[in-house]
Amino acid sequence: MKPKVYLETTVASYLTARPSRDLVVARGDQDAAARRVAEMDEIPILELSEEARDLAREFASRGLVPEKVAEDAFHIAIATAQGMDFLLTWNCLHIANAEIMERLEAVCLERGYTMPALCVPEQLMGS
After folding, report:
1. Range of the domain at 93
2. Number of domains in the chain
3. Given strand 117-119, what is the order of strands in its sheet?
């Protein structure tokens, strides 16, 4: 069976981003947003189940992912609850972070889940 990969939103953002020193343009580039939507058009969107919500809340309540970036906890929880093999991301602060991975995985195991490998593209595709 082919491995299942969850593409976190930073992957699509980097795929279609154009470098810019203008922070206003970089944050609100409508063309880049349209390219992101087009690139991801045929990729299925996973459901946010109650199990994933509970798991994300647990990550936040244990201080593993700050509440101010709750969407990061949801990415990990959705990928886990949906049985993904890999979560591909460029977010190394709150997702592909070696300092918290073991603790995230422990929470998943406590709840009967196997957490996907949290990795950046080079780790998945090789260098």
Report:
1. 5-40+47-125
2. 1
3. 5-7, 86-88, 117-119
- Residues 41-50 have pLDDT tens digits of 778 889 899 9
Q: 94 to each of 12, 35, 70, 98, 119, how far by Cα in Å?
A: 17, 25, 10, 10, 12
pTM: 0.81
The answer to whether 91 and 11 are in contact (CB under 8 A) is: no
- Helices 30-39 and 9-16, interaxial angle, to 10°? 120
Between CA 65 and CA 104 the distance in angstroms is 9
| Longest Cα separation, the chain | 46
Residue 67 CB contacts under 8 Å (≥ 6 apart), including other chains:
60
**8-67 confidence digits (pLDDT tens):** 888 877 766 665 556 555 556 677 777 767 777 778 889 899 999 999 999 999 999 998
Structure tokens at 1: 């069976």
**How is the chain split among helix, strand and coil, in percent rounded to 5?**
55, 5, 40
Among 4, 29, 9, smallest CA distance to 17 is for 29
